[in-house]
Design a protein that fits this description.
Elements: E1 2-10, H1 13-42, H2 77-95, E2 111-116, E3 120-126, E4 133-140, E5 145-152, E6 162-168, E7 171-179, H3 187-195, H4 199-204, E8 206-211, E9 217-219, E10 224-225, H5 229-251, H6 257-290, E11 296-300, H7 304-307, E12 314-315, E13 321-322, H8 326-338, H9 341-354, E14 358-362, E15 387-389, E16 396-398, H10 399-416, E17 473-476, E18 479-482
Parallel strand pairs: 8-11, 11-14
Antiparallel strand pairs: 1-5, 1-7, 2-6, 3-4, 4-5, 6-7, 8-9, 9-10, 12-13, 15-16, 17-18
Length: about 475
Amino acid sequence: MQSGFRFRLYPTPEQASRLLQWIGCQRFIYNAKVSEDLYFRVFARKSLDHVGQFAPQDQQYSHFITEATPWLREVPSQVLRNGAVRWKQAYSRYWRKLGGRPKIQKRHGTQGVWLTSELFRFEPVVQPETGQRTYCLHVGTRKWPVGVVRYSAHRAHAIPASITLSIDAGRWYLSFANDDGVPEPLEAETANWLAAFSEEELRARTVGVDRGVAIPFACSNGSQFDLKPIERDRIAKKQTAARRWQRKLARRTHGGANRRKAAQRIASLRRYEKDVRRDFAHQTSHALVADPKALLIVFEALGVQRMTRKPKAKRDAQGRWEKNGSRAKAGLNRSILGSAWSTTKVYTAYKARRVGKLVVEVAPHHTSQECAQCGHTHPDNRRSQAGFVCQCCGHTDNADHNAGRNIAQRGVSLVVSGEFKPRQTKRVMRMRKKTVGAGCSEFTLGEIAVSRSAGNSAVLRSMNQETPHLNRHRRLGGGSVIMTMLG
């Protein structure tokens, strides 16, 4: 199964300057491919001079290295090639309906460079005191050396096929993924195994998770998960400081050093909140999966994106704008997004799948108004945020705990009845075997270019995406592949 790793990286100032240059050049190639595709789709089809031409869907990048861009020759060619490969992979995701078309990458925010095996190597190092085996990371080539870049590995890892070096608010990170060779249990197999349990047995091994604003996660077994008070206080202070620095940033001159320093200060202040919420999601998901009594974990199928939409503007009969509660809704949206609902569910799903447990989603309607004891549903059952009193049987409980029990029961019924069907996820692998790298062609199989109408209208899809001018025999990884393209 695939395991992801993310370690802190500590380059020297000279190394950081060189890596930032690589990041900028790879981003330039990516954006150039995006602009080229946009030109052909929007403008070229309206010109008679371009009749019969198609939007290029290849991984060529050499035509971007001109007299106007001599600085592209100051980085390894593999860095530029990987920028074109990343664009092609993004387009492959679009063809499989896994995302939108590739867009222009901005130079603000998190930045990274994808490096293949020609640009780095891990050398094993054995610690003489403890005998522990670690690795030393060398980045660069003989012509363009970066040197040994120090990184902190908090857990053991194998040598990856490719890595990503990124910077976020002044901090550098090393990211990659490895396959440990252990087969990952399928959700369908786990569901069939759990369906063999009786309803009473499975109910005892099920945890229902109710997600809310006051308490982010309340479980049917009585456990609750929330940020610590000191973390909330620190987040509030840093948000206040970020708003203050945002006002300072607006008053500073564009392109100046002081404006750049203010932007870096804002990014570092906001980074704390992001790190805290990511850590909270990991700890919560680990606690849910590590419970030895829980084999089935049930969440509500909440549409977080739909729930956090801003309200539509309203006008009265005279055409004047009316109050639509946008300020209150914005505060609610911040609370929902700050509770890490979706991130925690995603983390819980992949961690549970690794240990042979199952995570399912059930319908969220009336979970907070239904009595877990007798099943009576009425809005008056929940009289306050935390209080639940059944109007039929008189059952009294914490509202979130009662909702967690209802969610757990719905999950048990879904699995026992056999109605649970695992969602079929579409995947686009970054590297199948060795489609890029030493000794391989710079082109990979893809989709054939098809005729498009102008603008962003619908396109005709086919099973292949390469452009027609690539109709020839190609050799990929030592094996002959004959590609017959349809013009």
